[in-house]
Write a structure and sequence with these properties.
The structure is a homodimer of 308-residue chains. Chain A has twelve helices and 13 strands. The first copy, chain A, is an alpha/beta fold and 308 residues long. In chain A, the strands form two sheets. A nine-stranded mixed beta sheet of chain A has the order 5-4-1-8-9-10-11-12-13, with helices on both faces. The first copy, chain A, has a four-stranded mixed beta sheet with strand order 3-2-6-7. The longest helix of chain A has 18 residues, at 259-276. The A-B interface holds A 91-92, 185-189, 192, 206, 208-210, 212, 219-223, 226-230, 260, 263-264, 266-267, 297-298, 301, 303-308 and B 91-92, 185-189, 192, 206, 208-210, 212, 219-223, 226-230, 260, 263-264, 266-267, 297-298, 301, 303-308.
Amino acid sequence: MSAENSLLVVGSVAFDSIRTPFGVRERSLGGAALHFSVSASFFTDVSVVAVIGDDFTEDDHQVFRERKINTENLQRIPGGKTFRWAGEYGYDLNTAHTLDTQLNVFAEFNPQLSAAAQQSPYLFLANIQPGLQRLVREQVKARFVAMDTMNFWIEGAREELLQTIAVVDALLINDAEARELAQESNLIRAARKILTMGPQMIVVKRGEYGASFFTRDGFFATPAFPLESVFDPTGAGDSFAGGFMGYIARSGSTGKIDDHTLRRAVIYGSVMASFNVEEFSCDRLRRLQAEEIQDRFRQFKEFTHFEV
Amino acid sequence: MSAENSLLVVGSVAFDSIRTPFGVRERSLGGAALHFSVSASFFTDVSVVAVIGDDFTEDDHQVFRERKINTENLQRIPGGKTFRWAGEYGYDLNTAHTLDTQLNVFAEFNPQLSAAAQQSPYLFLANIQPGLQRLVREQVKARFVAMDTMNFWIEGAREELLQTIAVVDALLINDAEARELAQESNLIRAARKILTMGPQMIVVKRGEYGASFFTRDGFFATPAFPLESVFDPTGAGDSFAGGFMGYIARSGSTGKIDDHTLRRAVIYGSVMASFNVEEFSCDRLRRLQAEEIQDRFRQFKEFTHFEV
């Protein structure tokens, strides 16, 4: 992959404490930028912009090394502690209940990008404070920019969020958040309304129900991969975004990205999310093989295909 | 269409009182057998087994006449009152809250089938007491039999329901009911478990999230049609079943129904349900044109297709 295909992500790297009906994991590697970059690294060269404390050990760093993720823009704060999140899931596994958040080094995060990072043609703004997302967006001469967000910012920083949404090409958001952002209970109308806020496209992530993709003149939808065991949903949305953006970056379109590429990107996003939830943290993705991705992509085709 | 393609349905014909966030309708034509037969009548010859009171007027009968639905096995009870159901939907439109049920003539329903009806090659057992479903199933030498049910029977008549499920080819059921029947929170495992109870196939109806189709060695899934306005979900599941069974009956397979036919049947079911919810009662289906069905079927192909 050349610099023409490189993908930059800004977001959190965290230690998670996760409780699901199937088990408990303490100090689990997490954070949106970490899940995203591990996922995207199967498709293209990825560089991560984030902040960590000095409790982030050499052993923790191994995840970036083994996936060949560029950490030139990963700031380490001496004496600081890495961002921590504690959450819990019930049997439906669709909604995370936050038990505790400790921003730690993230409270003062002021992303500074290297000259190379500023030249990245593809940029993903993972879920962080929308003002910070815009600050990074303005530093990067990207060809294609996507972002995620969450209910916390929709409710608490709406105006700032709208300003950020206005300067990206794609918004990736979950079902309930799309309805909340648009203040509209029907998802299709919600998506149409969000498209008037600036982005050219919206990907609505619907968990076990799949994903829907909206552009001003098009619509695409896919069911989710039929998993018999969903172990830990943490990072599913970020892995989805990693597959989506990673595939788009690999395609390297210099003009408007064509509809075929975008549809395949939605499927690759779905594929990566489906692997992510099979185990705690990014454990499953760390031992994933490229052939497994291709195999599951073909299965998506097989179980959604019908003849006219 | 010849007798080789004819489809028999047993179930309720009712007057509904429906309240949605978008309006109120009193004495609306409803009942599972009515919604099913109107939908299926676009595909094949349909005959309905049900019971009505003498409050079911000539004007009400018009729905059967205009759709050329055979009412030879529609019993009219002199002095009786037609089944009545009153229900309400909130903004999410996914769950009906029953306000009132008056069984009336349905309380004594004892389906008697004409000799012709007993020869029907295709049979649908709409949602009624599972013992009655089995009674009808035993009277009909059908080639292919499908059924629906609901939480009320899963909770209150489980053993009888399991006996009925054991003697059908296909179970059509909604998402929550599939999980409840299998006592399993993961839908895929729930479906696999139900397949051990007798049926060769299960269609899981997921409302705005689409439908999933399971056989012992296969899986197919489709998102729902992207509707900007869902007006009244009453009868959506029955319209789905009507499209699914109507298309299968029209195909007239004499042996095992092939996978391509079954997948298209799931899509036709989804198409018919999507029209049904656009207006109160079966108003939309009563003025539906065959070309509109084909057009929406093609749209399903368009918005789910991607290139490998």
